[in-house]
């Protein structure tokens, strides 16, 4: 079986420098004494700019920060997304420096496309083990409220996703300017580093498979004996599901040149067909999205499509 280490594209471990970091964490001892980590999502296209030509950018960022930066491979996505995973490990100040370098790089590319003087509010999605989310939320939500107030970033914790067998992680979405996001990352990582269970899982950062089929950690036999998620022999037969997606959101599901829908189809193993404009689900203005494949492929594709729709809805609300 492939080791966790080999599931990353990562450049050699950078030297542990103790440079003066831009963000001092109030509750920290010497940064080198308490190794921890943070994981966050990055799109497949953005991952290329983080790696750089021949790994030059990621090597430079490691050298500047003293942190180790690892990246999942180009077909290894966080379940229910087509996003890859970056893991940054080291002392907290080293981690903060590396995260800031990465986010600054992605932001500069975004601004060069936009040509807008105002600093955009962007989103960063951190991956946090479900068992560690309570520490971020705090009693009656007190901790997360104080983090929002102190950082001025929007902080949302996703509900537990039960669609994926063995997925014990949740997404923590930070919305704001780079400075606001960095203050929030500082507060969250400092809090997580106090949780012994969080630090222990640094050695096995994936408690779920990151290969294209999110269920491949379980060997489903025809009688469904393993895992028990699908208890019948229809699992590998071709099934079909039709869901409705608002006409205005179809573009985001399809993506430029059909890229998003191809990614979803490839990652899930399902075939996806969208009805023509005007061909709506009866009584609605929702287009028909028909997903065909095994039950697990359908579940995966449906989740990924609905996530795209939810993201579109969020953007409209903002």
Number of strands: 10
Rg, Cα atoms, Å: 21 Å
- Largest sheet strand order: 1-3-4-2-5-7-6
Major sheet details: 7 strands, antiparallel
Instruction: Name the helix and strand elements from N-terminus to C-terminus, one letter apiece.
Output: EEHHEEHEHHEEHHEHHEEH
Please tell me the overall pLDDT: 76
What share of the residues lie within helices? 25-40%
In percent, how much strand structure appears in the residues? 15-25%
| Terminal CA distance | 44 Å
Q: What would the principal axes of the Cα set say about the shape?
A: globular
The helix/strand class is alpha+beta
Low-confidence stretches: 1-8, 10-32, 206-236
Number of helices: 10
Description:
InterPro entries: KH_dom, KH_dom_type_1, KH_dom_type_1_sf. This is Protein btr1. The protein is α+β, with helices and mostly antiparallel strands and 318 residues long. It is 36% helix and 20% strand. A 7-stranded antiparallel beta sheet has the order 1-3-4-2-5-7-6.
